[in-house]
Amino acid sequence: MKVIALISQKGGAGKSTLAIHIATCAHLNGYRTAIIDLDPQATARRWGDRREADGPEVVSDHASRLAALLEAAKANGADLVVVDTAPNADQAALNAARAADLVLIPCRPAAFDLEAIEATRDLAAIARKPAWVVLNAAPARSRITAEAQAKLEKDGAACAPVSICQRVAFSHSVIDGRTALEFEPEGRAAGEVQQLYTWACGQIGMSTRPHAKRKEKQQA
Q1: If DSSP states are collapsed to H, E and C, what string results for the chain?
Q2: pTM above 0.90, yes or no
Q3: Using CA atoms, how far apart are residues 124 and 28, in angstroms rounded to an integer?
Q4: What is the Cα–Cα distance from 163 to 215, expressed in whole angstroms?
Q5: Mean pLDDT by 10 residues, the chain (220 residues)
Q6: Integer angstrom CA distances of residue 59 from 5, 46, 160
Q7: Cα torsion for 80, 26, 30, 202, to the nearest 10°?
Q8: What pLDDT shows up at residue 214?
């Protein structure tokens, strides 16, 4: 079982949006996937309550229960767990980072947001886990995203090669418990999520589809 944690000290960075989209992408590609929502605002859980599809499963609980929740997910055969954390760089976020195979730090390409990620980067370093900044809600066709990435890399941050733009499909789709992948499968928002998912799978050593993983085992 692989674990991806979405961590950011700053609220409004888009952790929940990325969490539900990455998890749903894995689900649609055939993986048994769960979302653990540790944010008291319970955005992911409320999205799950509205969702009519059979997955991914969304569990909301106190951050102190993370270890038990991960054990339960593993026992239930989960392939991937996506952890959505509260907007704090605290002990709970540190525990999430330590439990993760990959830490993603959502960040809007704006000055205050860029300044706020240092604490999250420090937390990931303490946990000794690979952490990548994902530029999120970026203006489409704007130089600001490239400029933000250049600044982050100058400051020593690792940036994911895929940025997620501010697109209507993201906000419209979650209203009734869907994602951009289902709302507009051939749209640009869905394409960006697919690219981010494919890249993340490579980072954690997971095939993009389970059948590919099984085929590799048979050939071995």
Answers
A1: CEEEEECCCCCCCCHHHHHHHHHHHHHHCCCCEEEEECCCCCHHHHHHHHCCCCCCEEEECCHHHHHHHHHHHHHCCCCEEEEECCCCCCHHHHHHHHHCCEEEEEECCCHHHHHHCHHHHHHHHHHCCCEEEEECCECCCCCHHHHHHHHHHHCCCCECCCCCECCHHHHHHHHHCCCHHHHCCCCHHHHHHHHHHHHHHHHHCCCCCHHHHHHHHHHC
A2: yes
A3: 29
A4: 31
A5: 95 95 97 96 96 95 96 97 91 95 97 91 94 96 92 95 96 96 97 98 94 45
A6: 14, 10, 27
A7: -80
A8: 45
Domains and CATH numbers, the chain: 2-219 (3.40.50.300)
Residue carrying the six token digits 């704007």:
142
At 96, the amino acid letter reads A
